[in-house]
Design a protein that fits this description.
It is a single chain. This protein has one domain: Flavin prenyltransferase-like (Rossmann fold), CATH 3.40.50. About 40% of the residues lie in helices and about 15% in strands. The protein has a 6-stranded parallel beta sheet with strand order 3-2-1-4-5-6, with helices on both faces. Helix 1 crosses helix 7 and helix 4 packs across helix 6. The chain is globular. The structure holds flavin mononucleotide.
């Protein structure tokens, strides 16, 4: 059983985190541990048709963002990796600087210190010098910076197709194949 921590922070495109959870429900060998920040709760309400409770119910385990005693707060709790989907610039700043002010940030910090894969679906545009410096610092600390960039070779028909493509890319960064994901050269 692979444990994966999913963080949903308050950047736009909460739907990516939700579709990630929907995808991982189809993988019987994966156990999901979800942490949603207060900002993430706001974007779920503002941007999607899901309630926060519905999103929580998609995960195997959901941990309160204020609960610093949750299992995912410790590196001794063995996890396969973590994806922050989406990752706000505030959460990026926390990851880049080891500032563990909530459980999502502590879990990301523990993931990095244990040299486990951490994928940040960073979402902001345009990017300030501060954002870019924090991305470089997080990358140098071991994180994968994976902005939700559109792709067209897969010929998306809907926005949801594009969202699912990003989910596939994020999982591929952890070495996990999303059910319907096809990379370049795998289209047929
Ligand atoms: C609808 C909405 C969309 C937002 N989009 C972004 C965004 O794309 N990127 C970002 O960095 N912050 C965005 N924010 C601001 C963050 O939610 C805010 O900075 C928050 O404090 C982040 O905290 P968190 O990382 O703990 O969730 C958005 C806020 C709202 C309400």
């Amino acid at each position: 059983m692979k444990r994966i921590i999913i963080g949903i922070s308050g950047a736009s495109c909460a739907i990516i985190g939700i579709e990630l959870l929907q995808e991982l429900r189809q993988h019987e060998d994966i156990e999901t541990h979800l942490v949603i920040t207060k900002g993430g709760e706001v974007t779920i309400k503002e941007e999607t048709d899901y309630s926060v409770e519905e999103v929580k119910s998609l995960a195997d385990y959901c941990h309160d963002v204020e609960n610093m005693a949750a299992p995912v707060a410790s590196g001794t709790f063995e996890v396969f990796g973590m994806i922050v989907a989406p990752c706000s610039m505030k959460t990026l700043a926390g990851v880049a600087n080891g500032f563990c002010e909530n459980l999502l940030l502590r879990a990301a910090d523990a993931t990095l210190k244990e040299s486990r894969p951490l994928v940040l679906i960073t979402r902001e545009t345009p990017l300030s010098t501060v954002h870019l410096k924090n991305m470089l610092a997080a990358k140098e600390a071991g994180a994968v910076i994976l902005p939700p960039a559109l792709s067209f070779y897969n010929k998306p028909q809907t926005l949801l197709d594009s969202v699912r493509y990003i989910v596939g890319k994020a999982l591929r960064a952890l070495g996990i194949k999303a059910k319907d994901f096809k990379g370049w050269g795998e289209q047929k």
